Amino acid sequence: MRVSILGAGAIAHAHADAVRSLAQHDGLEGVELTGVVDVDPVRAEEFAARHGVARHGTDLAALLATGEVDVLHVCTPPSLHLEQARAALAAGVHVVVEKPAVLSLAEIDALAEAERAATGGARFTQIVQHRFGAGAVRLRRLLDEGALGRPLVARCDTLWFRPPSYFEVPWRGRFDTEGGGPTMGHGIHQFDLLLSILGEWTEVRAMAGRLARDVDTEDVSMAMVRFASGAMATITNSLLSPRETSSLRFDTERATVELDHLYGYDDAAWRVTAAPGSEDSVQAWADDVAAAGEPVDGGRSGHLAQLVPTYRALVGGQAPPITVADARGTLELAAAIYRSAFTGEPVVRGQITAGDPFYDSMGGRGAPWPPVKDVPAQEATA
After folding, report:
1. Entry pTM
2. pLDDT for the residue numbered 293
3. Beta pairing, strands 232-238 & 151-161
């Protein structure tokens, strides 16, 4: 498969490194990074030189018109994702997009329609690499097998720090260009992993605030979530936390399973504590580690761990492991957090539909604090 990357910013390098490593895995020997497009021709040229890419340019339409792209990795600001993904799908090109996939439930539904109408069965998928680290795969498997008992209580914290200068980039800190604050742009990876472990949620109660940053969005949010299984969890998303950490804790009937990392984890980041009388739960975790052999990328939760099964699915003509429906489920939880925080009311799953202001924007009719930015739309999306 011939792969091109759209957008040559910082995250694109992680995509390029992972794509170039795919050929080392069985069945993916023919995957090749062949092109890069960026609005800045110098940046595109420098990216191509660094990663040994044969073709670089500034025009996505021209690239797609060549017919020499099988997969497009979209690494541009979130407000551009929908139209760029639509263009690729219409050209019969598979799309791999960075998070968040799009800015709203309305846009993810439009994207689903674009995939249904795609030429040649082109597929869409979103990067949610934390689902694919060896520890997360192991936790899901042991819960499915009953080795840990039922999940009961969970905590999901994304406690990061972004200084005021971070928001000097015009498209950051705006609902219309970034989709939201740390709930959409930062914590979404952690609570996506939470959802992959605990399954369908049923009710959310939340608060959000703009406490210290010159933004239109929140800079912190907190939520309480009830799941269909009966399990309950808290979610905190912050950009105001000097000692940065990303952490999840799952208390099950037979063990506590904890993950502490920052931007990515390996097996050493996990800890299992048995409940009294259930010491075999720790042994079950250890036995699974031993039986798994050598996981992809050493068990780390990087892009490669997700792209290996993703490309194997695409090569085989199958749906990727993360579908539009998966991306929508996580976006619906984000929308529910915003709706509950901004209205002061609980939100149940399925409540936010067409006609609800939070269906069209995570900000609904606007945050309960005055806007602070006045940036022309063309500058914000440049």
Report:
1. 0.94
2. 79
3. parallel
Q: Can you read off the two tokens belonging to residue 161?
A: 């720090």
pLDDT in tens, 282-299: 999 999 998 877 899 999
Check whether domain 2-129+316-323 has CATH 3.40.50.720, yes or no = yes
* Contact (Cβ atoms closer than 8 angstroms) between residue 136 and residue 193: yes
Which tokens is 46 given? 């420098």
Q: CB–CB of 206/346 below 8 Å?
A: no
* C-alpha span between 58 and 6 (Å, rounded): 9
How far is it between the farthest Cα atoms of the chain?
64
> Class of 130-299+324-382 per CATH?
alpha beta
What's the CA dihedral at 124, 357, 376, 214 to 10 degrees? -100
Nearest alpha-carbon partner for 57 in 15, 20, 5? 5
Whether the Cβ atoms of residue 288 and residue 142 lie closer than 8 Å to each other: yes
Domain boundaries along the sequence of the chain: 2-129+316-323, 130-299+324-382
What is the secondary structure of 55-120 as a DSSP string?
Answer: EEES-HHHHHHTT--SEEEE-S-GGGHHHHHHHHHHTT-EEEEPSSSSSSHHHHHHHHHHHHT-GG
